[in-house]
Amino acid sequence: MRMKNREGVIVGAIAGMAIGAALGLLFAPYKGTVLRRNIRRKADDIADEVGETIKDSIDDFSDTISERFESLKSDIKSTLSS
To answer: For the residues of 24-62, what is the DSSP string, one character each?
Structure first.
């Protein structure tokens, strides 16, 4: 359940960024060249944020799998000892 909530937050954040970018284009006060440079920089920033979010999600998933594996290993050892 926790992963589904996180995925929803990620999708919502990406959708919000896309809507914000579209509105920014509609109300842009800059010339085309300046606007394109700003968009490129903002897109790079967004890509970095999304990359960090994905990395954090993968790290959390990896930690969860490691914890479950260690728990299973411990259960098997205690079963074999008895």
So the answer is: HHHT--S-HHHHHHHHHHHHHHHHHHHHHHHHHHHHHHH
Q: How far apart are CA 79 and CA 71, in angstroms?
A: 12
State pLDDT tens for residues 34-77: 878 988 999 999 899 888 989 988 998 999 999 999 999 998 98
- Residue 20 in tokens: 């914000």
Residue given tokens 């359940």 in the structure block:
1
Q: Contact, 43 vs 17, CB < 8 A?
A: no
Judged on CB neighbours under 10 Å (0-12, 13-18, 19+), 80 is exposed
Domain residue ranges of the chain, discontinuous segments joined by + = 2-81
